[in-house]
Design brief:
Blueprint lengths: L2 E2 L9 E2 L2 E9 L3 E7 L5 E7 L5 E4 L3 E4 L4 H19 L9 E7 L2 E7 L3 E3 H6 L7 H20 L12 E4 L4 E3 L4 H9 L14 H5 L6 H17 L6 H6 L6 H4 L6 H10 L11 H9 L12 H11 L1
Antiparallel strand pairs: 1-6, 2-3, 3-4, 4-5, 5-9, 6-7, 8-9, 10-11, 11-12
Helix pairs in contact: 1-4, 3-10, 6-9
Length: about 300
């Protein structure tokens, strides 16, 4: 039977009530497609296809390798359960799952398509540093949605600038949950980890039993830190060996309020017990001690200079 690894469904392919338009993104765990439903409404569709243990056969069907059937099915269940949990969440700051179904021997998750740009693109597109007002607003709103996620006993586990979308109206939405892939990668070394170095908590590297809301909070702290630096923080596994991460209170002194910088540092604590233990605690901290006036943010060279001195 002919098969092609890493082959996406082609444009024009009819997937139940949806027509595939193009590939939006791909990785070792899934493909995400731009598609249209029968009413010509644009949606995003995520397909479970872990390419290290499965192949595309005859242009459509997904088949696990003979030695990986049990692992494939475990991941399939995790993916399906994640979709089921997300479908219960109706919050403006969390990507909306509107349908999920089985086809081609795999599972598809249909999501609302969001227009705008990623936080990563937003940060890199600014001529000056991201303002404190923007950071407090975006992460305050995002935390509202993350609270709903945690209420459903679900963790994101891959919060980073690329997975936060800024809509055309300026509101943020959290995309691309990584908990299903995290569960699969824990089961078998051949599955690439779902976490992103610099944004993943220490417990994602070393002890899955310690995962909790505080793990996502570490990632939020890392993402806020990247708003200051325009780059990823030092990875947690490297910090544990030799912590050379410049504290935010030093990095942003004179640019951002000490209160905000202290919050970022607390979120980035290597000890999970030292971080805010719930999203509500983080929100409360972000709302308290707002600066009376905001300094003009035009200190990119200062930030770069501090970073260079530590390298």
């Amino acid at each position: 039977m002919p098969s092609t690894k890493n082959l996406a469904l082609p444009a024009g392919y009819q997937l139940q009530d949806y027509e595939i338009r193009k590939v939006l993104s791909s990785g070792g765990f899934s493909f995400v497609y731009l598609a249209r439903d029968k009413d010509k409404k644009t949606v995003a569709i995520k397909e479970y296809l872990p390419t290290s243990i499965a192949v595309r056969a005859d242009g459509a069907t997904v088949l696990p390798n003979a030695d990986d059937v049990a692992l494939f099915r475990h991941g399939l269940k995790c993916f399906f359960d994640e979709g089921l949990s997300l479908a219960k969440i109706d919050h403006k700051n969390i990507v909306r799952v509107i349908n999920f179904f089985r086809e081609n021997e795999t599972v598809y998750m249909v999501m609302q398509y969001e227009r705008g740009k990623s936080l990563q693109d937003y940060i890199l597109g600014q001529n000056e540093l991201v303002s404190e007002q923007f950071i407090r607003r975006v992460f305050g709103e995002l935390s509202n949605g993350l609270r709903e996620v945690h209420t459903q006993k679900l963790l994101h586990l891959d919060i980073k600038p690329a997975n936060i979308y800024i809509r055309l109206d300026g509101s943020p939405v959290l995309l691309d949950f990584g908990s299903a892939r995290q569960a699969l990668s824990e089961s078998q070394a051949k599955i690439a980890p779902s976490y992103t170095p610099g944004f993943a908590s220490p417990e994602q590297y070393y002890d899955r039993k310690l995962l909790g809301p505080w793990s996502d909070i570490y990632s939020i702290g890392a993402t806020m830190y990247s708003c200051l630096t325009r780059t990823s923080p030092l990875a947690a596994n490297q910090r544990i060996k030799n912590d050379l991460l410049v504290p935010a209170v030093k990095l942003g002194k004179g640019i951002y309020s000490q209160n905000l910088l202290a919050i970022i540092d607390k979120c980035l604590s290597l000890d999970y017990l030292a971080r805010p233990q719930s999203v509500f605690s983080l929100q409360k901290a972000l709302l308290e001690s707002q600066p009376h006036t905001e300094k003009k943010v035009s200190f990119v060279n200062k930030i770069v200079g501090i970073l260079n001195k530590t390298l």
